[in-house]
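Example record for the data management plan.
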Amino acid sequence: MRLLLRFRLPISIVIALSAGTFVIASAQGTGVVLSAKDSARVVPASFYFEGQSAPTQMRNSAAARFGPKRHVIAGLVDTSGYSTEVQAKYQGFFITDSSITVGGKELGTGAYGFGFSNDGKFNVFDVGGNAVFSVGAAKDSALRRPRPLMMLKEKDELRLYAGRTYVVVAAK
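Corresponding structural encoding:
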């Protein structure tokens, strides 16, 4: 009994720290959507793709943080100067500074182009225009005010939307 009383404080500290670490790790898994002001600090003004640079549509960009120095940034770009072939597959950019999953598929650190296709897919390309992967996108018909591009935290998910179509983005 005396032994238990003697170690009560150290045991309490260990339990409190473990619980705090679990809460922080859980919060990092789903991400936090940055405000427009904070997003403006991390979203690039333009993006390079297939030998061309296009300006970012700042009103149609978003960023999320999964922890200190762990961001995911997405934005639509003005592709009016691009060839019709590039315009058909590429709508914007997707940048991550740590490994994540998108629609359940792993995506490594890097900068990518993306497009939501008419057949319900989210397509990811490297900056050279080569396909990285394609995943099924979901439809959210209950979304009240869809925008061309936005990130929302719904339930325990971080969603990247293009209109009412979305994919789930998660920390790895």
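Summary line stored alongside the record: The radius of gyration is 20 Å.
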